[in-house]
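Hi L., both proteins are below.
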Amino acid sequence: MMENVDAVTILGLMAGTFTTLAFLPQVIKMSRSRSSGDISLLMMSLNCTGVFLWLLYGFFLSSIPIILANAVTFALLSYALILTIKHR
């Protein structure tokens, strides 16, 4: 299967992995500390909406890197948004 994956797809998967993982420490910190006072609810809402739109865009393009990265990021952001609202 990997022999059919081109360099651009690998680049997209790598980019998606790093940008998704970059947000993971914040989500873990919010979950453990039960604190989100320094997190902007507006920023979280806008970011969550933007990532959801990127996910839809990925589906329209049938782009696996865009779909995977944004599906995972959307799940993380949704959880972080819930924590932000819950711990206010």
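That was the first. Here is the second:
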Amino acid sequence: MQNELQTDVPCVRCFYNLRGLPSDGACPECGNPIGPSLDPSRLVFADPRWLRDVTRAVELLYRALPALALVLVLLPVAFWPYLWTGQGAGVVIFRALFSIALVLGALMALVGCLRMTAREPAASVAAAPEVELWLARVGTIAAGAATVGMILLARFGIRLPTEQSSLVLALIFVFMGIAAIGLLGRLRRLAVRLPDPVLARGLRRDAVIIGGAGAVIAVMSHVPLPTGGRLAGLLPVAAVILLGGVWDYIRRFRRAQRRLAPSPVSADEGRQPAQ
């Protein structure tokens, strides 16, 4: 019989805490051998500081994305009488609040993305490069910079022509689609290490669909029609697909992580698989 487990290790099948059990035994709850639960690649055995940062990034995005979407929906509803007429101090107030919400949302998304895509200290140097890491970072930074740039130009009284602003908006959503693919790809790698194969398979299947569909629909909304107009109504649909799709998987990953790889209580408390 090998040594008893000295740390909290959830069973990979039923999430039962295996602490105090022999490493060569079986889970008393489901009968699954304890060996697979001690796989050193599991997220629960990752560097504690890095795991804590990833957990905080997940929490930030989990709370920030729906809050941003809610603000962007409620503001136009609250100021609808002023927007309908296009006159009054309410229009100025709306534009200021809307700009602040967009800037804060871009900053929170950037912080969450950078923390979630931080390289793991214990990762092997010979490991394959994570393409999704760079997709997430480049997409988020580019979308945030373009959004903040348009807002700052407007604050200084510089308004882009309709065609140029339409192109910039389309590019912002394309970058958001790229960021969504990168973030969901990153979540898939983490889900494999929980391990949660069902969640990982869903992420593999839906990452490109969510990011690609949102970007394509957003671009279509800015393509001029033969009548001279545009399908601007598609823009909220693209936003819902991108923000809602990413948030739903972050919610599911967050729930799975709480069962299979909770974040360390403190930065000094490391977790290593039993020998």
